[in-house]
Amino acid sequence: MARRTGFGVKPKQSLGQNFLVDENITKNIIRDLHLRHDDVVIEIGPGRGALTNHLVKHVKQLTIVEIDGRVIDHLRQRFTSSNITILHQDFLETDLSMLKSSVKAKLRVVGNIPYHLTSPILFKIFENAACVYDLTVMVQREVARRIVAESGSKEYGILSVFSRFYGVPTILFNVSPNCFYPKPKVTSSVVHLQLHQSYPHVVDLKMFHLVVRTAFGKRRKTLRNSLRYLPYEENTLERIINSAPTLMEQRPEQLTVEQFIDLSTHIEAIIR
Ligand code: SAM
Predict the structure, then answer these.
(1) Residue 67 CB less than 6 A away from ligand 1
(2) Which CATH architecture is the domain 205-271 placed in?
């Protein structure tokens, strides 16, 4: 008979359901969260509750957000304490600013997340950076390396720039496929992103996102060529490119976050 989840439902690949079955890993995640009794935590994708079971005992308020209706009733029966709220919805549609304002505290976001949603989840956290204290998530090891990559390395890309722009990313530890059911094909890593609490960067956010995305959109090209894809008239593009000739000879992976900030500020001044 096929192995099933603890709730008697078959894991769905389309929902990224690789359930944690190694209690040591669960405990290590909880240990590294350094939970405090006044923490307000959001868990993405509780599944059959491997992390939930620990989180609920340690924090003031826990909200769990699960898209799979098959496990919601079980979660409701299992977790009945007054400090837990169970939301049957898509985390990508969840209103974090409303959750934050209802509890008047910054949110700690945690999850063994579906790997195909790693980028959308990270970008949701970036968009809501003002509401979030920190993020601790299980991701594919390769993606973890991209998140923490430094400029000049092969892995450095959009995720690295935005992660460093919004916070301080670190890899906590790697997790073998054997710790999950069903086993994923890849090794995983638990990543922590400490969001900046006071905003260190003065830059137009829209422009910053546009410049980083446009530059990495043509990753192998120098900025001289990739920035031609910015949505401006030809003569504006010429002014941008000619105003910083040395920088324009670089490829995007050579630029630090600070250089991207300076470049965005520079372009903002030109188009204004
Ligand atoms: N936390 C559990 C564990 O560690 O065993 C489950 C982890 S499993 C990798 C990912 C979980 O996220 C599944 O329970 C899945 O149903 C849920 N999920 C998938 N897409 C989701 C979404 N958009 N919003 C909320 N939960 C989602």
Answers:
(1) yes
(2) Orthogonal Bundle (1.10)
Residue nearest to atom 19 of ligand 1 (CA): 15
- For the chain, give the mean pLDDT: 94
13-195 to CATH, choices 3.40.50.150, 3.40.50.2300, 2.60.120.560, 1.25.40.10: 3.40.50.150
pTM over 0.90: yes
Confidence band of 7 (pLDDT split at 50, 70, 90)? low
Separation of alpha carbons 217 and 225, rounded Å: 11
What's the CA-to-centroid distance between 158 and ligand 1, angstroms? 24
CB of 64 shorter than 6 A to ligand 1 = no
pLDDT one-digit tens code per residue, 52-63: 999 999 999 999
What's the pLDDT tens digit per position in 108-118? 999 999 999 99
Answer whether 9 contacts ligand 1 (Cβ < 6 A): no
Ligand 1 atom 1, closest CA = 46
Please give the Cα distance from 109 to 134 (Å, whole number): 6
19 in contact with ligand 1, CB cutoff 6 A: yes
With a 6 Å cutoff on the Cβ, whether 49 touches ligand 1 is: no
pLDDT digits (tens, 9 = 90+) for 112-143: 999 999 999 999 999 999 999 999 999 999 99
Q: Report pLDDT digits (tens) over 61-92.
A: 999 999 999 999 999 999 999 999 999 999 99
Q: How far apart (Å, rounded) are the C-alpha atoms in residues 137 and 100?
A: 19
* Residue 107 φ/ψ region, left for φ over 0, alpha for ψ in the -120 to 50 degree band, beta for the rest: beta
The answer, yes or no, to whether any atom of ligand 1 lies below 6 A from the CB of 5, is: no
> How many Cα atoms are found within 13 Å in the side-chain-facing hemisphere of 122?
27
How long a stretch of residues is the chain? 272
Spell out the domain ranges in the chain.
Answer: 13-195, 205-271
Using alpha carbons only, what angle is made at residue 167 by residues 162 and 171, rounded to the nearest 5 degrees? 90
